[in-house]
Amino acid sequence: MAIRQELLEELLKDYKSPEDLLGQDGLLKELTKALVEKALDGELTHHLGYPKHSASKGGNARNGKSKKGLLTDQGRMEIISPRDRNGSFEPELVKKRQTHFDGFDDKILSMYARGMTVREIQGHLEEIYAVEVSPDLISSVTDSVLEEVKAWQNRPLDAIYPIVFMDALRVKIRDNGHVLNKAVYMALGVNLDGNKEVLGLWIAKEEGAKFWLKVVTELKNRGVKDMFIACVDGLKGFPEAIESVYPETQVQLCIVHMVRNSLRFVPWKDKKAVVADLKTIYTAINAEAAWENLKTFRSKWNEKYPTIADSWERNWEGLIPFLSYPDYIRKAIYTTNAIESLNRSLRKVTKNRGSFPNDESALKLLYLALRNISKKWTMPIRLWKQALNQFVILFPGRVLEE
To answer: Which residue from 228, 222, 245, 230 is spatially nearest to 157, judged by alpha carbons?
Structure first.
């Protein structure tokens, strides 16, 4: 809508500084207030079916006005809202019992999703917009996403995910008066287009193969008919839980987990050298060469760190599938191990909280954080087309063709 130049000049005739336009009592706030009130008057006229100062029709009529406080981007604003005699008028622009514009909700959700606590959000809004926002308002705004979380958690999934990563994140949550270090189970799928997608979040008191069985069963019930490779940590019974639901799925121990666990007791001065030598194992041309490199690693480091080579040897059967894949699939599995970077991103938003009051509160924050993170997943993973061609060869008849 074009605004007449004369009107702009009239509005800005007393303008001297940005404060006059953007300040707490500036023109923009006053103009917003005036436009909102004028629009509400127009809505009431449309509802009644006749303009102001005309004879009433149908028995209903204007019945004075009431004051209403409203939180906006310009701060707190008091508007005058018209009423009708019958009480049947339901304004659209500012609904009954509405205390803030929708855009204000988005700001609260955005700050919450980035890990800010309720107190931090209160302080930020007061500093930027000079408005006092109660903890109850912040909670009601963030609670509004719980139905969205429920729908997301139960949404239908694709029939095929060539790669699925499964891992658990530890979060402190109150339960019956005690703070427990609960496991948040996550499944991250790579679909046939090479795009990453978090398939779901589940919370339990402990991480265990029995609960993972429940997770993969739910994925099956939500439409996942096949996954070619499931990349998991070394939890006992985990591969068997997956294979009981997806018997044709190749279970692969997560290379990143193996490396990370190997470095747990290695001091900083040796980490670079240990990482370089471990890399010769998981980047070897085949399983036989990898085994020779593991023996070389053992002879070099066993005196200092005897548990590392033992761990790789103990989990060797779970690592062998990775070593038999072509290069493009290896890169897809290793470089796409985004569940690790995903966990790091989620830890950033949970670290400010000593504990969550309940499971719902934790799910709410993690879902909002995931919603933010996934906005960056706009492109397929690198070299995906080449990897998909390899999947067609390695898993004949299992890749749906158009």
So the answer is: 222
